[in-house]
Structure prediction request, 256 residues.
Amino acid sequence: MKIASYNINNVVRRLPNLLSWLEAAKPDLVCLQELKAVQDRFPEDELAAAGYHAAWRGERQWNGVAILGRDAPPIVTNDTLPGDPKDKQSRYIEVAYQGVLVASLYLPNGNPQPGPKLDYKLAWFERLIDHAATLQAAGLPVILAGDYNVVPTDHDIYATKSLIGNALIQPESREAFARLLADGWTDAVRTLHPDRPMYTFWDYQRRRWENDHGMRLDHLLLSRALAPRLKEAGVDRSVRGEDGASDHAPVWLTLR
Prediction:
């Protein structure tokens, strides 16, 4: 089974890019983030014509998450992250698919910081850690896939001092990600590629794609029950260089 995560950065505008990648990569399950489309604007028919069933939660201007299944419809088990019923932002969807539980998540950016946006990011992270612990304790085969908006270490970002104040690399963000991993989650890409940067995001500004000034923001985390089945993992970085591309590249893994 091949499972991927892709921050599409506007699913309507970049639908041609998405369809082209789906045809080339042929993932079995795809987690999308940053749909930037209301619920009834999601391109369900076009994706169905490409062979993919979909479950999604849209939002008008920002956010939005979806999961696409190639062989069967994903069965939604959660369309919000538990822990705060007042939080209406579309940042989390969780499905059962062919014996695996998969979540597509879009963690808050947190900028500018300090302030309420970083506070919201860290509170959201705590809810994720709590929910992930519940899934882990149940012994379920789980993948937590998505744009975490966290650069875990200095190895995951190009050499720079210009982003020292960015919420993506703040100690609090990194510490929360480390605590999540410490509860038994396996970072699939980093486990199989310990020495390479494996960037997944290159900002549109300042020729960061052309200069390979990237960051690793998109992660695939496996529960204890699923980690032994990890076979391959990688980043389809060439997708980032295509015309009209998202500023993220798809990240993927295969399971035995």
